[in-house]
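Q: What residues go here?
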């Protein structure tokens, strides 16, 4: 059975380009109050532990959307590197000046 692409809702899916999206559901939360001896040291340190379920949903995707999304990720990656070098350059300038 061929499904329609989830993203563009126009093209039919390419089964090899399907993407998996992870889902998380918190099932339980536990707070642990760590007593630190003296009453003067309030508030206590609080440790929170979560229990959760995970599942992966397979989302039908067409070839075109798979390619577009790969490009978007590449652009984000390059933008991230440029942003980082920009910050480093700024720090260098501040220290040199
Ligand atoms: Zn599509």
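A:
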């Amino acid at each position: 059975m061929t499904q329609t692409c989830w993203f563009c809702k126009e093209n039919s899916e390419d089964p090899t380009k399907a993407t998996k999206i992870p889902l998380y559901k918190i099932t339980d939360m536990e707070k642990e109050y760590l007593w630190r001896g003296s009453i003067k040291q309030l508030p206590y340190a609080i440790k929170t532990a979560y229990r959760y379920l995970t599942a992966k949903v397979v989302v039908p995707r067409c070839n075109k959307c798979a390619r577009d999304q790969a490009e978007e990720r590449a652009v984000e990656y390059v933008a991230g590197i440029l942003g980082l070098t920009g910050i480093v350059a700024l720090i260098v300038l501040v220290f040199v000046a």
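A: Context that may help when evaluating the design: Helices lie at 63-96. Strands lie at 19-34, 45-59.
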